[in-house]
Amino acid sequence: MQKPVGIIGGGNMGEALTAGITQSGLLNPGEILFFEPRSDRKEFLQKKFGVSPTESNQGLVSLASTLILAVKPQSVPEVLLEIAPWITPHHLLISICAGVSTDYIQSFFPNPIRMIRAMPNTPALIQKGATALAPSPAAKPEDLSAAEAIFQALGITVVVKESQMDAVTGLSGSGPAYIFAVIEALAAGGVKEGLGQDVALALTTQTVLGSAYLIQATTQHPATLRDQVCTPGGTTMAGLYALEEGGFRLALMNAVIAATQRSKELGEALQKPSSSYPFHQQKRALQYPAVTPGVKRRKGRIKKNPRNIKVTRKLR
Predict the structure, then answer these.
(1) Is residue 282 predicted with pLDDT exceeding 70?
(2) How far does the chain reach from its first CA to its final CA, in angstroms?
(3) pLDDT tens digits, one per residue of 53-63
(4) Residues 197-212: pLDDT tens digits?
(5) What is the 3-state secondary structure (H, E, C) of the chain?
(6) Shortest CA distance to 144 belongs to which of 170, 162, 166?
(7) What is the spatial distance between Cα 280 and Cα 81, in angstroms, rounded to a whole number?
(8) What pLDDT score does 147 carry?
(9) d(CA 283, CA 262)
């Protein structure tokens, strides 16, 4: 892995990456750079982890060959337009942006770039995350190895086809929220039946944690382990019957399906004409302006209608 590593974005996942990488010992704080426009977040990350901020994304790209794109999907076009002129064949770009395909990112660059698309989740904050990785066609084997090293420091990794990444987003990317909702509901049931809130939450949390560990330790199917808890006509069967009546399993499956669909929608929204021009297309549009309402082109010149003047902002 080429050092230092540069993280574009200091939000929750940027913090999770920084925490996991430093706490695991994969890199020391001096080998991590980041750019975050919000001054409060910048100071927080710098103070908490000892990592170094840069003054701009351009500065980050000039200093780090391994870059992790950790911004909201709607911020991706703006960030890519900013860094595109400075990306070279020596850079590896790892994107953790939900719903953003490598094809879309590639559209901002005139030449193929090395990319890995990754989808981690928030338990990466405590090195218990699950991350799926999908390399782009231009990625090298060592690029995938570098990404695996980074995200294995945060938990487990799997390699999937990029066509499966929306499903990964709907399952493990959004999954912690589903589990938190399950824990909250189970604990509320305990409180309803007379347990103290702290006791109910502690019992529920450990039950979920222990059950997950049991699956990992035994490698048995969850249905098999479930049946081992059940006694014919017993309390667990009564509880499971109530879950079936309430549509519990179907609700969870529909949650994954809905989140997967939303991930696809986010990606499709970026492809619409209203989105920012990709870098090489924008450059071409500036060189060869299109005819728009209120603008007449004659003999190689553009004649503006003073009643409908269109102002085009220049690229920086």
Answers:
(1) no
(2) 31
(3) 999 999 999 99
(4) 999 999 999 999 999 9
(5) CCCCEEEECCCHHHHHHHHHHHHHCCCCHHHEEEECCCHHHHHHHHHHHCCEECCCHHHHHHHCCEEEECCCHHHHHHHHHHHHHHCCCCCEEEECCCCCCHHHHHCCCCCCCEEEEEECCHHHHHCCEEEEEEECCCCCHHHHHHHHHHHHCCEEEEECCHHHHHHHHHHHHCHHHHHHHHHHHHHHHHHHCCCCHHHHHHHHHHHHHHHHHHHHHHCCCHHHHHHHHCCCCCHHHHHHHHHHHCCHHHHHHHHHHHHHHHHHHHHHHHHCCCCCCCHHHHHHHHHCCCCCCCEEEECCEEEECCCCCCCCCCCC
(6) 162
(7) 9
(8) 96
(9) 31
Q: Are strands 92-95 and 66-69 parallel, antiparallel or unpaired?
A: parallel
- pTM tops 0.85, yes or no: no
* CA distance to 16, 76, 85, 110, per residue, from 283 (Å): 36, 18, 11, 10
